[in-house]
Protein: 3-hydroxy-3-methylglutaryl-CoA synthase
Amino acid sequence: MTVGIDQINFYVPSFYVDMAKLAESRQVDPNKFLIGIGQNEMAVSPMSQDIVSMGANAAKDIITEDDKKQISMVIVATESAIDSAKASAVQIHNLLGIQPFARCIEMKEACYAATPAIQLAKDYLANRPDEKVLVIASDTARYGLESGGEPTQGAGAVAMMITQNPRILELNDDAVAFTEDVYDFWRPSGQSYPLVDGALSKDAYIHSFQESWNEYARRHHISLDYFKSLCFHVPFTKMGKKALDSILTDDIDEQTKERLTSGYDAATYYNRYVGNIYTGSLYLSLISLLETHHELNAGDTIGLFSYGSGSVGEFFSGKIVEGYRDALDIEGHKNLLNHRTEISVDTYEAFFKRFDNLEFNHEVELANESKGIFYLESIHNHIRNYNTLN
Ligand code: COA
Structure:
């Protein structure tokens, strides 16, 4: 019996900003954003898409009527929570029409939380062949207009159905987590934007990766040539590349170096056009790898590094299942990314400010959304009301 990812899907809002234009507007050389940070486009969330609606939108296309009866736990991982008490998983559970006898919780540890959610689901399902766990990673990454972190923003959600005998990726029993108390990025309660020490956050990420990987390799007697490819948490595509390069030392053979480097390009292709989606970034990278890498085979092992500032890192692995491509929505994902609307820097700034003031203007914001999509319709007395677009 194996447990792993049976279905995986993502949702991103239908608006984006071109990073070269954002750079020009900030009087920065565009190559800093395009090459130095490694981002081409950045998803921008309208007021009508919050972590609940994006999470529901990511999940709705992978859930069948039978799934709704079998899901016994919904876990939402987020670091942009809209409530300090009520779990967004409860609202998503309602929107999706999942049977009522289910656990719903929200998990937090910066960008890392979807990984312990999956590991929890894996252990939970070991003795439950007829149940399923829905894990959703949903975030709006906001650092502030003209802030240092502005080019590393984004918005989106990834939904994963975790089951026994999965159709996409079997999770191995090998995870190694590494915890270190560091103030590289944090958001004190009540603050709209995170506090971040950019340089420290890059160093802390690489340190966490090296500690997790070295301990993983030591415990399991595994070296890099064991992996077909590696996926990283991707706050921006250059970040994971720095971490990867840090372990491609002179003693690693050229074939392995080339394989992992070209695999990294496939594993960050979607991220390059979405930006940082915090908890979902590693799993968007996994989707990108599965859908854009042309030489993956059943039985290949993929290494995954999850990182959440503060910090917790985790290195684990999964094995690709025969016929995995049939379980992916490759065309749907390409359409979602290719049919977004580019907005000017001025419009992006207007969207951004509306989030701060919780202002709605649906005529503009829903113009290009497709039918059946969940959206936030209003907030009355601090209660969020959702609807679907018909
Ligand atoms: N052409 C090409 N590259 C250029 C360039 C140009 N004209 N100008 C600068 N660069 C490169 C820099 O050399 C640097 O590359 P390096 O890291 O390989 O040295 C990169 O662009 C970024 O430059 P930097 O000066 O570090 O940018 P910054 O001070 O604006 O900070 C972040 C960048 C990512 C740290 C900042 O956006 C941030 O704090 N983001 C949020 C935190 C985050 O995502 N942390 C990641 C770990 S979770």
In short: The pocket of coenzyme A is lined by residues 29, 31-32, 35-37, 148-149, 151-152, 185, 196, 198, 201-202, 205, 235-236, 239, 309 (CB under 6 Å).
